[in-house]
Model the fold of this input.
Amino acid sequence: MCEKLCAFLTGKTGYLLGFIGCFLIVALALLIQTQYELNPCPLCIFQRIIFMSLGVLFLIAAFIPPASSMKKAFTGLQVLTALGGVGVAIRHWYLQANKESMIADCGVGFDYMFENFPLEKALKLVFRGTGDCASIDWTFLGLTLPQLGLISFAACAVYAIYLLKLNTQ
Done:
């Protein structure tokens, strides 16, 4: 069984599955958003952007020859991107865990921040969080969306390393 799975993930297939997985996570987030009429907070949107970036990195890596040093570089980029996502998810989870100390009023929207502030200030505002970042609107098996994102980002980092090892043997 394991040999068949390893053979299946070798080459482009494993990376294409990583690409599809990342975009399925974003599609699932959009489905949850529309199904439950939720408004995503800036950190939710930022996590989606990171998942899409990670998916694109998996897609590009699918077309890099296995013996290439670029494959290792892209694995490094995939892991760093996933770890960036871990950081955002942890910050979001922290805001939810400490919602009593959060400002009750929601801040300005994600689009407004990036259109009207310099990048550095907009990123500071995103990571500061808003009242809506602290609210828990949906759970699955007792896990909030940031917790599920954290698990998914960590899994993507491990998966990227696994694919590199599998494809360079």
Observations:
- The first strand starts at residue 139 and ends at 140.
- The chain has one domain: 2-167.
- The radius of gyration is 18 Å.
- The domain at 2-167 is CATH 1.20.1550.10 (Bromodomain-like).
